[in-house]
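Working notes for the structural subgroup meeting. M.R. asked for a predicted model of this chain before we commit to crystallization trials. I am recording the input and output together here so anyone reviewing the notebook later can reproduce the run.

Input as submitted:
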Amino acid sequence: MAFIHMKSVSIDFPVYNVSGRSLKKRLLQVATGGQLGAGKDGNSVVVRALDNLNFRIDDGERVALLGHNGAGKSTMLRLLSGVYHPSSGVYEREGQIGSLIDISFGIDPEASGRENIYLRGALLGIDKAELESQVDAIIEFSQLGDFIDIPTRTYSSGMHLRLAFAVSTIIRPQILLMDEWLSVGDEGFKYSAEKRLTDLVESTNILVIASHSKELVSRVCTRGLWMEHGKVRMDGPIDEVVSAYFG
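Returned structure, recorded in token form:
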């Protein structure tokens, strides 16, 4: 059973060397809706990126993170993935995490496509033996043919994305994190990519996706979290949250 549980979780980021800029600090406080506070050392200000989060996500839920740019959606995804840790409160999780937030991360332009399969796979935490058993399938899906053994710096942007997508979507985590729905390649590849991504989403216990697409979240998700200035403004069934957020 997979679950995510946030108990009074906040994340603060200190910004140093601004103690003498009292006017600027005051302007920033006004501009960020009071989300800035003084650091304990007196030589910094603190940006509160996430503020007192309290919610639980259970098996079977597909959750949409909604909100304007800067609302805290990306910080939330990084917290869920373990990149960030709470400054206060408790974050509990059961289940293996898989992330499709940056599918090109870790790809070396000087390495061949085949070598990059192993590099990207290692970053995803995939066991080498498991990866080796899927290399041929990854190459076939990416449609790179003989290009798989030449440096990726020679690839077009479309070839690069096909390789990154093919490797990144072999994961089968219990909890899947996404920043928008992935759409890669030409029309022919998009069909295969869409089916592969849909199969991945359906196989995972919990999905958390940040998106600005009303149609997408209404189709894919069961629940919405509307974020504003690092806080959860609304949490409920996706149709109710979509109706309130999109007006």
